[in-house]
User: Fold SDR family NAD(P)-dependent oxidoreductase from Streptomyces anulatus.
Amino acid sequence: EAGAPPAVRLRTMGWSRPLVVRDGPAEVRVGLTPRDGGALAFEISTGTAPGTVHSSGLAETVGAEEPARLDLAGLLATCPRERGPAQVYAEFRDRGLDYGPAMRGLRELRLGQGELVARIVEPEGGGAEDTGYVLSPSVLDAAFQASVALLADTSPATGGGRSAPALPFAFEELTVHGPCAPETWAWVRRREGRGPLDMFDIDLCDGKGTMSVSLRGLVQRTEPAGAAPGTGPETGGNTVTAAVSWVPAPLGAPDDGTGPEPVVRGYLGGRAARHTAGVADLTGFTLARLPDVEPGRVADGAGAVLDLAFRDVADVVRSKPAGPRRFVVLVDDRPPRHYHAPLTGLFRTVVQENPRVSGRVVRVAGLDAAPLERIAEILRAEAADRSADCDIRYGADGTRHASRPGELHLGDGAEVPPLKEGGVYWITGGLGGIGRHVARYFGRYPGITVVLSGRSEHGAASEAALRELRDAGVDAHHVPVDVGSRTDVDRAVRAITEAHGTIDGIVHAAGVLRDAYVFTKDASDLRAVLAPKVDGVLHLDAASRGLTLDFFVAFSSVAGVFGNAGQSDYAAANAFLDAFAHHRQALVDIGERTGRTRAVSWPLWADGGMSVDAVTLRTMRRDRGWEPLPTEDGLRLLGRVLGDAPPHVVVAHGAAATLTAAPTPPEAPATGPVDSAPADSAPSDTASTVSDEKLTERATALLRRVVGEALHRDPGTLEETVDLIEYGIDSLAILDTTAALEEFFGPLPKTIFFEHTDIAGVAEYFVAEHAEVLRTVPDAGASHRATAGQAADATVPTDAKAQADAPATADLPAGADV
Assistant:
């Protein structure tokens, strides 16, 4: 018609960086710039001008044309395979895409060969009629979601999909011919022959086939935004395993006195606590009594012990200590090791977050009866020891041992798990990504039954999981249970045994994450994270005591063995599991329990339902040679562990993966003024007489360059007194920036950019703490990555360089494993 409005077209649109909205509203700017021919260039950004650009493209109007008509009936005929929306959204959630009700517009999906047809209904709460939208965001996003479903269906990855979340990255052209109908149909096709790009064309139409929107060249990207070339998973690699055992660890030579002595806070447990005041007087250390752990209330007692230590550690971290701080816990060797094991996870983590803060648990045979002089002697020795060991034991003869992972050869895994005909196997946390993989793996053995449990009541997600397993031939069932509740666990055991006659094996894979650095973590998070691991394993053990089990397996994490920045509570909970496995196996050996007991400290799984950022992947490779564990490798290893294996097995994967690196000193070096920089590495203008003002200039220039690279901004536009949040810095950029700065300075507190929120504050920190390195920082115009290794080798003091060179713990962020 002559009066028909023109069509709206968007071209060359891209999403360069996510926009994250947390508790409060976010101020977003839309910048428009006229272009030739009447087009408008647009940028969507946040922060102080020029700000962080999140999206950009071109908008224009084109002459109205008669909308094309699609043969909807014919398309439906060529797409015969149906998929339920509930199952699709459950799979999205497993991949890290958790859509709320207002964004769940998919009502029907029909798949064909490289194409699908989806029926989309405007979700309640996203009504276009109330907002004036011609193309509702929830309708367009539902079409994008359909392309992700097609991507999973057509990808060659094992299991018919990819574990990393797919996010829209760009499209070539989107034309809006008219408003969408209340019920919209999307025809989605995947383009072939586009190399590494996953590209789609989408048309939206009404029930008669009249097209309202056409979208061409939508690129869905599964690699995290900002990932550099070469940061994707490597192919190949080996799966390596280790067993943790006590190895002789005599105390090293006394400190030469050149470095600062640590400020020590000690704790005494058991009957030795009666000497708290006397030992404090002898040593000059601050001492406290450790809460008792009663056999009938292990979870409460272990939680109270961890809570006390965590609060003290957090206070020290938040005080921004200028010198080393050391926590030493002394307990008698008679109480079971798992009572105090969570402290080792805490101490292994905090030293990664702040190299100045370290700690250890020391178990001493006969400590309860030891005189206070002996207690003081051990406390002084452990406070002065520079090794990174966090778990120490003194035998009755005074010999000292440390708990360390050692190489373990388990041999080939089992393609079919070693189960038994008619067996019934219970998987807690079974609706998670790894839990469902285990259920499918168990289903390779014919005639078995698997029962999946999670905290949620039976619903769409559990029904989708059961349907998927049953379609694969697995006799699968669901029993909701909160493993943190003993009553709930007892009820679940009764329900399973009444329905299936018995339980032959338990896999405990439940877990909760509340990731945050100690500097910012709320102590109330501890109990939430401990509950499924600590309370859960104790409740499962108690409830299954009367059963004849073939195995009892707890899924733990490498975080419990090596620590993990941002996961102090999670590392603590998994350290408990590891120690409890030894305890329970000892009970099996004397006939008080049944079932081979194993704790498996898993790394990140490639298809475990979680993904990590590119910085973390680089850190994993750089520090330990780790890669994500392929699903089949993990499952076959589980089958091997179910047979002849030690109670605790640690796992990693990668061509150069290692689990047995020698411990490194935990303390950061003293950073006071030094007399001179090395003569062969420092330029003539970097002598010790360089003023603080000059060092501040160097630190500021370095920070502008490094932060600018992380934020993809011109360093010259970064003002040193502007809050970095205004420039769009986020957790990924902080990780990248800190990793780059560690190339110069060695291990750094992971919370620098929480403690100091602008470049000026961070520069002040480096002038105060790392002046000797700043004296040899290259010219500000050079690329820091090209010279960082040289600068670090030339200037970092011996102790710090040992930390920088030796393999350290890989950072596995939230949800890295079970």
